[in-house]
Amino acid sequence: MILSDLLRRPVFAADGEYLGVVVDARFALDGTRHQLLNSPRLVGLIVSPISRTSFMGYERTGVRAPALIAAWFRRRERGSFLVLWEDVASLKGTTVELRSRATLHSPRLAGDGRVEG
Amino acid sequence: MKGILAVALGVLTAIGGFLDIGDLVVNSVVGSRFGLTLVWVVVVGVIGICVFAQMSGRVAAASGRATFEIIRERLGARMALANLGASFLINLLTLTAEIGGIALALQLATSIEPTLWMPVAAFAVWLVIWRVKFSIMENVTGLLGLTLVMFAVAVFLLHPNWLDLGAQILQQPSPHSAESPATYWYYAVALFGAAMTPYEVFFFSSGAIEEKWKPKDLAQSRLNVLVGFPLGGVLSIAIAACATIVLLPKGIAVDSLYETALPIAQAAGKIGLIVVILGFVAATFGAALEVTLSSGYTLAQFFGWPWGKYRKPAQAARFHLVMIVSLIVGVGILMTGVDPVEVTEVSVVFSSIALPLTYLPILIVANDPRYMGKLVNGRVTNFFGLVFLAIILVASIAAIPLMIITGAGS
Amino acid sequence: MTRHRTPRRRRLDELAPPPRIAAQELDAQLDLLDRQVLDRDRVQTTTVDDIELTDVADPANPDPARPPELTALLTGPVLGTRIFGGRPPESRFERIPWTDVSEMGTVIRLGVAADSLDATWAERWVRDRIIARIPGGTHDPQ
What we know:
Chain A is 16% helix and 27% strand.
């Protein structure tokens, strides 16, 4: 499977509600051990209600300058969230379906730029 | 003493390297038709290129990365590819214009047909890129280009009416009723594009990597830019002034470098002409080197290929192949008989259109602490950056309509 | 792609906090895709054009205990298909195995030399067939 198989897939909740498209995939470096780096393990998918891929990731890294540009992009891209792998019910076909009562998490990255609560 | 020499060298190289065929042609055309009423555009353009050249140099010194590499990371592949497509095509157009410019300058010197000079010029450009060390290449062409200071000297030798010249600078818009306001603004956009051509920024930041700048080199580079570029801008204005004094009263149109050089012949005779032709050759040759390298830089940086004149050609194979192919294509276009001066005028207008795509990513990257560390933009730089971005957007949007309305300035 | 009504945007306070994970996290699009790859001698190798993951055994019923892992960085024709659509056959993937990656930051560092990788065949081809044949091609400009 390659990443662009997942990107831009529409995401649906268990009840059929359309939630957005996959704009990114989050990994953690705690997979299979190797000599240099561990394999990245898929933590979850970042979903955005706008049907465009994330532009410059302003909403996730907390970089705030230049102020006007950052604020504009931040406003355009608010509303994205993270769903964990455990909450993915199906990757069949060209969509992503979530389990019932799947949790939608904040997409903020820890430890990169300023993080807000 | 060595320190002062190094500083002087940097500044002088910046002055001499500032002018290319676009500046030579458009400034003399503007002077011959609008007098000095468009000088303010040159001033605005110089400030703009200073702001962004400084920024892109700082990005290179702080992050160790050249501008186009970062454009793909920050904008994503799709937008960067669009940017690459536009930049590469405009680069190719500019390259064609510069090679044509070398041939025109050599025609002035030798009266030999430019078409015969074109392949020779392209081959010479390639040979220098293939073999000559980066810093030597820069310094020699920059210093020889200083002979264009002859234009400034000529302004004095022509004994103009200073009050009249000064009044023209402040007059808005053109007092010459033969030219419509649309044409005035068309040439404003063209002049702006000639001052802020995208290749300059790509070249500047890649050159910073070539010369291995570290943050401690930034003070030196700031001096080169803030002193050298404005003085280069003064030479641009001098070219326009010479055209205003000699060509405008007689209604002589600028169709080739011959008319651009005419005021020098009048002011300083044969010797002045020889000096200025040397300057034409050096300026266009230097610009051709920079534009060709920019073609290589942008393509190689987008795809992640090894690049750089500091590497053996065998270690940056695709980088060199791109440049060879670009030169061949450029000569090919010229051999179809197109007028290099017209190619030049079209290339500067299209440069204006591509400017936002180039400058917005630089502004964004220069603010990202993950690349810049402590050297992120300050408030003042961001303010100027945003102001110029707005100006660039206006010029870019207005370019095509103005081109259509005015029939490309005719 | 069928058109859907634009879903509502959830505010941050409507979302659960991000899960606590001990290891370093990275987002593929933000941190890996389109990044420059340098080899162990800091020579540019390629940019990351796409990423290969382990296959999911049963896509209709993915196992929550077995998330896919990233196995390789991809370059080559995948860039065209990522931008314009489609998918090249797996035999045409040009891979840099994840096991060669030593460091991640604004650039991705490898622990091996670029020439030893399959994925750098194009550079070697141009070098051997064209550039090395022109006089001075192996001349050191410094």
